[in-house]
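Recap from last week: sequence in, structure out.
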Amino acid sequence: MFSRADGFSDKHYLRYRLNGKRNTVKLGMHGAITADQARELAKSMAGDVAKGEDLAVKRKEARAEAVKKSQQTLRAFLDGGYLEVAPAKTAADTVPRVKRSFKEFLDKPMPEITAWQLEKWKRAYTGKASACNRELTALRGVFTRAVNAGLIDKSPMPDVKKLKEDKNKKIRFLTEAEEQQLLAATETRQEEQRAERLRFIKHCETRTREAPEPITGKFTDHIMPMVLVALNTGLRRGELFNLKVKDVDLSSKRPSLTVVGEGAKSGQTRQIPLNDTAFNTLVTWLNESQPRDLVFPSPKTGRRMDNIKSAWTALRELAGLPDVRLHDLRHTFGTRLAHARIDLVTIKELMGHESLETTARYLHTNDERKLEAVATIG
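Predicted structure tokens:
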């Protein structure tokens, strides 16, 4: 065996022989280290060779380990393996959520992300407890899939406890009076749309331009039927957007609609019977709009809608209910069922909850019922 630091080309090398085999390892770039420094380094490394260490193999293993670590980072998994094992709907929500909330961990190898580090992140979180827990739940799912894929041995998440949430937080739902306000606003909105169409028709006529037809149907667009369906079926926003014509049964003795699992938050298919209001709304809407695939397609693209934010904001302002969200129509459906003393299991199945604990939130009473209850013992 012999060792030597050479300055050929622009690099310093150590050449050595081990077990009859010649090998060469780079010591450093010329200029980055001096020839004297290269010789000292070569002398030290030659000692390792004398002990039987194969420096070339050792460096190759180190490079392989570095590549493995780069492939095990949270970012690499989110951009690669996670997309292959997670449902598309889950991935579409989880990947941007985790990248947004856990930026400081993205380029860390997942085995090096500890519960202690995540506890520090949790303590520094400035939002609501419920929001913090949603972020942690998303990350928990990512780690679980990484374990299942064999990329890491264990997840740090079992040692990261959720923050305590207010389980009695009041659910926002529409009182009967507020519901009437909202429905009246939808009627007003439709009258304004019809009037606007007539004005445009007259405008076209004065300029000898081709004019559109006046609006003659019950519904001027998708907003009013969506509101009525949401109030009477409890569908989530995404479930309204995903609802297909083929999943609405209006011809049988028991009309219903089916929320297909892949388009539902829980991933579970459920069937919802239609009351008279929902039935009449869907019959009229489908007859007037004649959609081919989605019940409520985007009026601009014909494909799935992303949101109805601008229309909804304008509608609730018109109704004098600026704090009401579209999701609160679902809360209204669940609350009405609970106030009608429908059993929890039935409400759970109608709303597509994963647990009775979630459904039990709808057992709250409104202020009028509380006043009546207290009055009985006055």
